[in-house]
Specification:
about 260 residues, mainly beta, Porin, 8-stranded antiparallel β-barrel, 3 helices, 10 strands, about 50% strand, elongated
């Protein structure tokens, strides 16, 4: 992480006197996530519920996610483009039971990213490579859905809740740009969000809803503060130093978008 930040600072100093333009971007794509601690939880959960008569199919790892991004870049001609962008990514995972009941997990990420794209930006076709960092606010929403569509986050299910985590992760990526007309290019971009970050904090049920819910039941049988990697239905609380679902995921993203070059 320190080496990556150092390279970004060096790149910024080199381009301090370069000609530049403003480059708004918008893109949409798919995201593929590998989340080891959540996979451990899913495998453990499946081993417990497979003996339940109403059980129909496994809880799987996160499915392909949707990824929307808008950004603004300062294009340094000849070497570097600095980009600041906002991304919103969603992933889902479900386990189905009889009578159209299911447990639903939804992961939502709101990200603020800084990227340094080496190669700058030109009005012709080009392939560029970049690196950066991402400040991520992530939530896992765990709910039980009934046959009438009612989605419960309340005390009728121990895993119910909204689990939150904030972390910073490094990004590596590449982008191909092809001009449609002067000042407008279509882009195809691939990014890798690395598995390590500033910490490995747990997903804690710290939203106002789940805090209120736990106060109502007074730490009862149904109250979970974190998602355990080893699910135990007879366990009433998370033990100290017990492994929980954390921020150890990595992600590969593909996006198609448009970039507008507004030259100063």
């Amino acid at each position: 992480m320190r080496h990556l930040i150092f390279l970004l600072i060096i790149g910024s100093s080199i381009t301090a006197n370069s000609q530049f333009g403003i480059a708004p971007t918008v893109s949409y794509g798919v995201s593929f996530k590998s989340h080891e601690s959540f996979n451990n939880f899913a495998n453990s959960y499946n081993s417990v519920i497979q003996d339940i008569p109403a059980y129909k199919e496994d809880l799987n790892s996160w499915g392909a996610g949707r990824n929307f991004e808008v950004g603004l870049g300062v294009a340094m001609f000849g070497f570097l483009m600095h980009e600041l962008n906002y991304s919103r990514i969603t992933h889902n995972s479900n386990v189905d039971f009889q009578y159209d009941h299911r447990r639903k997990f939804k992961m939502t990420q709101n990200e603020f990213n800084y990227l340094a794209t080496f190669g700058g930006f030109s009005e012709g076709a080009q392939l560029t490579f970049g690196a950066g960092i991402s400040l991520i606010s992530s939530k896992i929403r765990s709910s039980y859905v009934f046959s009438d569509g009612y989605e419960s986050l309340g005390e009728d299910g121990r895993l119910n809740g909204i689990y939150t985590l904030t972390t910073v992760k490094p990004i590596l990526g590449a982008r191909f740009s092809y001009p449609l007309k002067k000042g407008i290019s279509i882009t195809a971009r691939a990014d890798w969000l690395m598995p390590f970050g500033t910490d490995s904090k747990k997903y804690g049920a710290i939203s106002s809803f789940t805090d209120l819910n736990r106060s109502k039941v007074n730490g009862s049988y149904f109250s979970y503060e974190q998602l355990p990697q080893e699910y135990n239905p007879s366990q009433t609380s998370i033990q100290q130093n017990e492994p929980t679902v954390n921020g150890d995921w990595q992600e590969f993203r593909l996006r198609i978008g448009i970039i507008f070059l507004l030259v100063e």
